[in-house]
Amino acid sequence: MSVQSSQPPIKPRRPGPPKALLTSGSHLLKKVGHMAKERLISALEGTGLSSYHYAILSLLNEESCETQGMIADALGLDRSHLVGVLDELEEQGLVQRRRDQNDRRRQLVRLTPAGKEALKGLRTIAKRVDDEFFEPLDAAERETLKELLARLAAHHDAGYRSTSGS
């Protein structure tokens, strides 16, 4: 005597996330951002520097001298975490810190010539990672994606708003 099941047979599930996530813009943005971040971290491994170092060196290259507080605010970093990252950069001779003569409580941070050289190498690595990561997109699609991401960033974070008013 055989027992028949009234249940339909179980189909094997397709690999990957559920459709609800595949159609969620915020989920896809998070996923793509995480993948891009991991590639940059991996590419920077051999340099002894991190994406935090890269961000700080980039900022200091644009602004000749910053206080530690301004750096933390501009990059959205925790101030206590920033101190450790600056210690690492200073130990490698890439930045120089000194007390502000006008306010002895503040530390002023400057990029050194060695820091400028290191930044050139980091930019080359970051550009290569971008080129490889965005390879499936043509130049126009890349530009459109950057414009859309910049618009979203500016909408949600005043620090990303253009100072030119565009």
Description:
- The structure is a single chain.
- The model has no long low-confidence stretch (mean pLDDT 90).
- This protein has a domain of 81 residues: Orthogonal Bundle (Arc Repressor Mutant, subunit A).
- The chain contains seven helices and three strands.
- α3 packs across α6.
- The radius of gyration is 23 Å and the shape is elongated.
- Helix content is 58%, strand content 8%.
- Strands 1-3-2 form a three-stranded antiparallel beta sheet.
- It has 166 residues and is mainly alpha-helical.
Largest sheet: 3 strands, antiparallel
CATH hierarchy, class of one domain? Mainly Alpha
- What sequence of helices (H) and strands (E) makes up the elements? HHHEHHEEHH
Shape: elongated
Assigned CATH architecture of one domain: Orthogonal Bundle
Q: Taking all residues together, what is the mean pLDDT?
A: 90
Query: At the third CATH level, what is the topology name of one domain?
Result: Arc Repressor Mutant, subunit A
Unreliable spans: none
Count of individual helical segments? 7
What percentage of amino acids are in beta strands? 5-15%
Q: Give the strand order of the largest sheet, numbering strands 1, 2, ... along the chain.
A: 1-3-2
Number of strands: 3
* Percent range of helical residues: 55-70%
